Amino acid sequence: MNIVALVGSLRKDSYNMQIAKTMQERYEGQLNIQIADIGSLPFYDQDQENNPPQSVKEFKESIANADGVIIITPEFNWSVPGVLKNAIDWASRVEKVFINKPVMTLGATLGMLGTVRAQMHLREILSSPGVQARVLPPGGNEILIGLVQQKVDVKTGKLVDENTLHFLDDKVNMFIDFVKSV
Ligand SMILES: Cc1cc2nc3c(=O)[nH]c(=O)nc-3n(C[C@H](O)[C@H](O)[C@H](O)COP(=O)(O)O)c2cc1C
């Protein structure tokens, strides 16, 4: 199953990027996860949307060709980081590549609430007319990783907290079934 991952942090030592890399390795047999380089996308500009820069074309093609998308994001000021919103905005215009695309969202923060506000915003964004993604339904499927600094290995940066990993395994299996059902 081919999956594109969007990571909402550009920071070199980003916890969210580390989780994306942990998932890439851990689910290798089940999922082929490619992490999109959303930091290389220019700011969305309506004047360019019909003939966008190459980086945008490639990004949109990668989503169009994927079986599903996993969004792994921190929360910035109670919402999604601008870099992630920018990527979704490009994808929501002309060829609307998110329409009916299965999407799973998760996120990690230093605080206890584990991106709950950001993910609530994200679900709204993903429901908007230009996006219309099929998001793994809530109701036990919210993956909110709070206090992430206590759940990663300080040397490797990899997610090592067993409870979180088992929860993630369960939700990834659910997402795989969801992708197959769409
Ligand atoms: C601009 C900015 C805004 C932030 N706002 C929030 C917030 O609203 N809620 C929260 O839990 N953490 C917030 N944080 C802290 C992040 O959880 C923390 O920086 C986290 O490590 C970012 O994810 P990363 O490690 O993947 O870069 C904010 C951090 C920054 C830099």
From TrEMBL:
Name under which the protein is recorded: NADPH-dependent FMN reductase
UniProt family annotation: Belongs to the azoreductase type 2 family.
EC code(s) of this entry: 1.-.-.-
Entry keyword annotation includes Oxidoreductase: yes
Gene3D superfamilies for this protein: 3.40.50.360
InterPro entries: Flavoprotein-like_sf (IPR029039), FMN_Rdtase-like_dom (IPR005025), NAD(P)H-dep_reductase (IPR050712)
Segments forming domain NADPH-dependent FMN reductase-like: 1-137
UniProt cross-references to SUPFAM superfamilies, sorted A to Z: Flavoproteins
Keywords: Oxidoreductase
Keyword Zinc assigned: no
Record organism: Niallia oryzisoli
Domain of life: Bacteria
